[in-house]
Automatic annotation (TrEMBL):
Residues 149-174 are annotated as: Disordered. It comes from Streptomyces cacaoi. PANTHER family: TRANSCRIPTIONAL REGULATOR, MARR FAMILY, TRANSCRIPTIONAL REGULATORY PROTEIN-RELATED. Residues 14-148 form the HTH marR-type domain. This is HTH marR-type domain-containing protein. InterPro entries: HTH_MarR-typ (IPR000835), MarR/SlyA-like (IPR039422), WH-like_DNA-bd_sf (IPR036388), WH_DNA-bd_sf (IPR036390). One of its GO terms (molecular function) is DNA-binding transcription factor activity. It holds the Pfam family MarR. SUPFAM superfamilies: Winged helix' DNA-binding domain.
């Protein structure tokens, strides 16, 4: 039996990359949790993700938000009701179709998202500053390659909302 060394090496390399990506993903979750906790300890990362989708996508139908988050509409309803009680989301009946609920980020919600993302970017920037220049360039190239392999640009929060025309006409957050 002939052992296919290049395929074995590729599998080993893929495993090494997968483990490194998973480790980096865990760090990103931790930095997101710290950034959110510094702004509002009562919110969860799932709620932050909802706010980020609304911040990115503008006014959104509840059903589109649920699809973007990968949850059922009742879960999205409960989450947005909590965010509404906290003053971060405004829920209104769609005037064009009274069976639909339209969600908008309030000014307070937009400010929370902006401050949280700024904290996250600042912490990541501190880490990046510790990486030698050549390795930073390799990191950027590697992360962009991974992003392309995973579906390319336009796969971030809110993109499903745009694709399914979940965005309502009108003003953005505020």
């Amino acid at each position: 039996m002939v052992h296919d060394e290049p395929a074995g090496e590729l599998a080993d390399e893929a495993e090494e990359v997968a483990l490194a990506v998973m480790e980096a993903s865990q760090l990103m979750i931790e930095v997101s949790a710290r950034a959110l906790g510094a702004e509002d300890e009562s919110l969860t990362l799932a709620q932050l993700r909802t706010l980020v989708v609304l911040h990115t996508g503008g006014p959104v139908k509840l059903a589109s938000l649920a699809g973007t988050l990968g949850v059922n509409p009742s879960t999205a309803t409960r989450m947005t009701e909590r965010l509404e009680r906290s003053g971060f989301v405004d829920r209104q009946i769609n005037p064009d179709c009274r069976r639909e609920v339209v969600l908008r980020l309030t000014g307070a919600g937009a400010r929370l998202v902006e401050r949280t993302l700024a904290r996250r970017r600042a912490e990541i920037a501190r880490w990046v500053a510790l990486i030698p220049g050549r390795e930073r360039a390799e990191l950027v190239a590697g992360l962009r390659a991974l992003s392309r392999a995973a579906g390319g640009p336009g796969t971030g929060p809110g993109e499903e909302v745009r694709r399914t025309r979940g965005i309502m006409s009108g003003a953005g957050p505020g």
